[in-house]
Amino acid sequence: MPAEPLQRGTGARPGVGIVHLGLGAFFRAHGAIYVAEAMAASGGDWGIRAASLQTPGTRDALAPQGYAYIALSAGPQGDVAQVVEVIEDVLVAPENPAALIAAMADPAVRIVSLTVTEKGYCHNPATGALNLDHPDIQHDLATPLPRSAPGYLVRALAARRAAGLRPFTVLTCDNLPHNGAVVRGVVIALAQQIDPALADWIAAEGRFPATMVDRIVPATKPEDLDRVTRACGLRDASPVIHEPFRQWVIEDDFVDGLRPDFAAVGAQMVTDVAPYELMKLRMLNGTHSSLAYLGYLAGYETISDTVADPVFAAFAQRLWQKEIIPVLQAPPGADLPAYADALLARYQNPAIRHRTWQIAMDGSQKLPQRILGTLAEAKTPCPGLCLAVAGWMRYVSGTDETGAAIEVKDPLAEELRRRARSNDPVSALLAMEAVFSPKVAARIAVPVGQAYARLLALGARGAVEEVLAK
Ligand code: CS2
């Protein structure tokens, strides 16, 4: 029997209170579900008008379903499907930038949330400051119809100010350290270039709470569509697959205190997110990236395949116990060794096929907060993390250990490849100040050089084994 197509129910709809920028799988499997549950628990008009900043694919798939979709929780015990009905509408920014600005300037909208990935903030990853030379920022300075997320935020805040409205809260949900301060900084810096009075108003009235977001959500693969149908009997053109675990820690600082009742559905509302985000970025994302580069080079397709190899599972544990935890301060109530054990179990979940290639993407934007922060603070040698940096250097050369081509996705891919193929790849890459501060570069030059040489001599798996023997 052919499966019935998913269709949004006919129940009452809340009004739109949130515009979300960046309609990827992560937001649909994380923030959107919290918002839906918060409204179910405590009410409120927090329907979501989402915007894709690049392509129409998700809008085109979701529109015939009334923007409903299935989120499949994939755990070792099996799959559990949930229908999510919280997106009211999807805009595709490049088709009509003015319509997105108008949507963000709507008086009913009180929050603009973002999942635009690290590179979407158009900042310098090593310093966090707005990159005024970024082509999208140059474009957004030259015309009032923007391309970048900071450009949309600034133009929409300008429209609200001109209309005598309060600003919206900017709720960033990307894996950046001090993500609230980073987005605040890029928005104010861009506004400063356009209208200094606007910048002053944003600085005084705007709110940019920091958040720590966590849920493993691999990109949906074509075969996932049948998997979802098997789990619930419905046909969804664009489902999302996620692990059961989720966490959201939010700085409770919203314009006029207006927000969904996130605390009712398990989000942690705190005054200081920093220790939570450092724990998550360094312990989860730091080992994710390390396993992604070295696992990919060793021939593993996914994180679960990588840590099914005991050598790599032991490597992750070594990174946590000997290199990362020693320089980390535990957030209130957290037990870092127990957090590490839980991470390993999450990586081992065989129901989640998270490609090493996907995590390896955009390394130039990820390395500073995931790995280099720990290396900057380390008091003892960190051969494992230095090997991970060397693995990234090898990876961005675009050729793997068997001589096969690697499809390197990174905004700096061309420059990375050129430097990685030079006579002295380690020095050439360490000289990139967008990634490595001169201080970190000087600190790690010798051990990363040694790790790189061992990687060439022994291959990724052999070099990992050698680190374990240390
Ligand atoms: C991953 C993250 O793709 C990546 O770089 O490390 O997306 C990771 O799955 C999430 O941060 C988990 O919360």
Structural notes for this entry:
It contains 19 helices and 13 strands. Helix 7 (179-194) runs antiparallel to helix 8 and helix 10 crosses helix 16. The radius of gyration is 22 Å and the shape is globular. Strands 6-3-2-7-8 form a five-stranded parallel beta sheet, sandwiched between helices. The protein has a three-stranded mixed beta sheet with strand order 5-4-11, sandwiched between helices. It has a three-stranded mixed beta sheet with strand order 9-12-13, covered by helices on one side. The protein folds into two domains: 4-270, Rossmann fold (3-Layer(aba) Sandwich); 274-468, N-(1-d-carboxylethyl)-l-norvaline Dehydrogenase, domain 2. It has 470 residues and is an alpha/beta fold. The mean pLDDT is 97. The longest helix is centred in the C-terminal third of the chain and has 31 residues, at 438-468. The protein has helices spanning 25-29, 31-42, 57-62, 97-104, 135-142, 149-162, 179-194, 196-205, 224-232, 274-297, 303-308, 310-324, 336-348, 356-360, 363-377, 383-395, 413-420, 425-430, 438-468; strands at 4-5, 16-21, 47-52, 69-75, 78-84, 87-92, 111-114, 169-172, 211-214, 234-235, 240-242, 247-251, 268-270. D-mannonic acid binds next to helix 10 and helix 14.
